[in-house]
Amino acid sequence: MTMEKSQSLQLDQVIKGLKSPAGITIALSIVAAVAASIDNGFYVIVNTIVTGGMWALVAMGLALVFGVMNIVSFVHGEFFMIGSLTAYFTFTPFSDYLMDNPHPVAEALLPILAMLASVIAGIVVGILCELIVFRPLRKRTREQWVMNSFVITLGLSTFIINSSQFVFGTDFRGIVSYWDYPTLSIFGVYISFDRFLVFILAMLVLGLFWLFMKSSKFGRAIRAVSQDETGARMVGININGIQTLTMALSSALAALAGACLLFMYPAYPTVGLGPLYNSWFIVILAGMGNVVGAAVGAFVVALLQVLTTIYIGEGWDYTIPAACIILVLIIRPSGIFGSGVRGILDQ
């Protein structure tokens, strides 16, 4: 009887989940993807999955920093730009050297080195932003924190963009590809080896990030701070340390996405604007601060953009998702998944 009750309870939870806004949205997305694939080919699903994986990296970092620190970050796109610039200046000189001195193993590992360098750059920039900007502000005042953080991140964004333009100029710095391998065919859909492999890397990073947040001591501490700062402080969690770690992880995820997409998005001062828009579309759609919801929402937004490009045109790929976000805010302000965290500085 106990087992039957347990199975019945699990079934009721599944049915409830399917009837929720998130369940309905996911179901409708799957139906739309299948219908579009029947009409236009399997590449609709392939493009959605590959693109969604990249946007998930950026959006999860944005959701994380809002959920834990309640920072409405508009500098997140610049972390993406820093990652792409770091990858370019790491990859290009070594790639030029290997053209004259071929070494198959080095050529295969060089892109990974460039991505690791971008992650390190993202971590460093995130830590500096926390120590120099946000921590001093928290010490001085917590009144109007959301508005203050919004204005500060706009200022940081402008500062980083103009600094990049002053130091590196406005030239586009990109690469044709990371790996010089043949194009792959997946169910009759041709996809470059770069896009396939960076998607696999993105899924690996997302999986490791989920395990980190779910099982590690620091991940549990981050979740505790996001739910109740006072309670977390009472049980001995170092709040300043967790906030620094959160900012470092957030900026590292965005920088990694910039490095992964260097062959699609060349590095230049304002390259982060598009990823920033997409990230906010995803975070608002999923629910502010809901990190897991942001990962799922990334694929929903990617599907919207793919369908918009196919049926309306490329110039509308931001317009339709923006319209959907407006509808979500009107009908369900907390997002389709609901806000997963409270935010430590809620007034």
Overview of this protein structure:
- This protein is mainly alpha-helical.
- The chain has one domain: ABC transporter involved in vitamin B12 uptake, BtuC (Orthogonal Bundle), CATH 1.10.3470.
- 75% of the residues lie in helices and 2% in strands.
- The protein has 13 helices and 2 strands; from the N terminus they run H-H-H-H-H-H-E-E-H-H-H-H-H-H-H.
- The protein has helices at residues 2-19, 21-40, 43-69, 76-100, 104-140, 145-168, 193-215, 217-227, 229-234, 239-260, 273-286, 291-311, 319-331; strands at residues 184-186, 189-191.
- It has a two-stranded antiparallel ribbon with strand order 1-2.
- Strand 1 and strand 2 (189-191) form a beta hairpin.
- Helix 3 runs antiparallel to helix 10, helix 3 (43-69) crosses helix 11 and helix 11 packs across helix 12 (291-311).
- The protein is globular.
